[in-house]
Structure formats: C-alpha cells, structure tokens
Amino acid sequence: MGDVIGIAAAVTVILSGIAFLVAMALRRKRAIEAAGFVEIERVDEVLNELTKVLFEGVPREVHQKQDPSGESWLVFVDTGSSDDSGCVMLVYHIGHDDWPAVVLIRSGRRVPAIFRQLTGGIFKWAVPISDTEMSGLTNTGWFAHKEAKQLIPTILKERLSEAARCPQFQGLLGIAVCNSYLVIWSDAGRLRTLLAKAPLVRASLLSDT
After folding, report:
1. Is 144 exposed, middle or buried (0-12, 13-18, 19+ CB in 10 A)?
2. To the nearest 10°, the Cα dihedral for 111, 62, 64, 105?
3. Partners of 122 in the β-ladder
4. Whole-Å CA distances, 192 to 25, 29, 38, 172
C-alpha cells in the first residue's frame, strides 16, 4: 500500500509540473498575441547576425509585427546554456547608419547571468566605455560598451543615458544600437515587462530624430 501511495504522489507531482509548464506556455502565447506579434518560420539573416553579434547565440523562436511605426521582431534567444532561462529581445529597425554600435547592460553585479558564460558576443568586439565618456550612467546600474575607437554622437549618449536613468525601464537587461537596429532585451521570464517597456525605450531614443 505504501508503494502505491508513493507512486501516486510522484505521479501527482509530475502532472502538476506538466500542468504548470503548459499554463506558462499558454500565458506567454497570449501575451505575444495580445502585443500583435505573429510567429514566423523563416528567420531573416539580419536577425541571425544580430543574435550572434550580441549573444553568440541563435534565434530559437521569432515573432514579427508590422504597424505604422515600422516592423519589429520578438526573438527568443538560444544561448546554448542551461544555467538560466535565456533571454528574449525586441528588435526595431531604426536607420541611423551613422551611429556606431553601443551596448548598455544592466546588472548590480555588472554582468547579467546570460553574459557570464560568454567569451564571444559583445565581448569579441566591444570595449567598456569610461565613466567620463558616459557620465550619465553613473550610479544607474547600467554599464556601456562600444565598438573600439568609435566616437558616440552626443545625442545618442544623452538619450541612452536618459533611458538608463528612467525608473520605468527597470526590469530590462540590455539596450543596444547595432547595425541600424535598436535591440532591447530582458530575461525570458520577464516577457511582459519587455513588451510593455521596449516601445517606450524606442520612442525615447528616436524622439525628433
């Protein structure tokens, strides 16, 4: 009898776990659909390149949205690591081919979990930006990197610093301007936060430009 009860208890735990995962998947699906994104099968090479450049990873799942403000993509990133939940990023095409690549990373420990195992990604090509050059980030918990030997336009520095100081953007892990695209990301567990706040970052960065 004891064995039967033990097996029943184990089955109950397993079924509860499965039910929880299904509920989370449905919740995520509803959030994505409510934001107007539709999953696509064919991933644009630009998204592959951005994911590699930033995370040394590949897109695991991509959703696309088209609206009057332009095309955007919601990308779940496969970093090949089992140590964290991965990340999800929102990608906007912004033009500004004259802007160099700049990456802001937010973390109380300077490097978020998704980056701790990386030897590639931004760490292949980016160098830390000094506090003198990006004084607007002081005491914000955000740390900036850029292409080596590149000058950052004053307007870009100012707007990135403004975004970093804005309390409503807490919960985001990164903001990058790279190859004429704006990329904003959070860990995968904060999808709703990303969907709510990334458009505000985009509006702030591109205001009157």
Report:
1. buried
2. 0
3. none
4. 13, 11, 16, 11
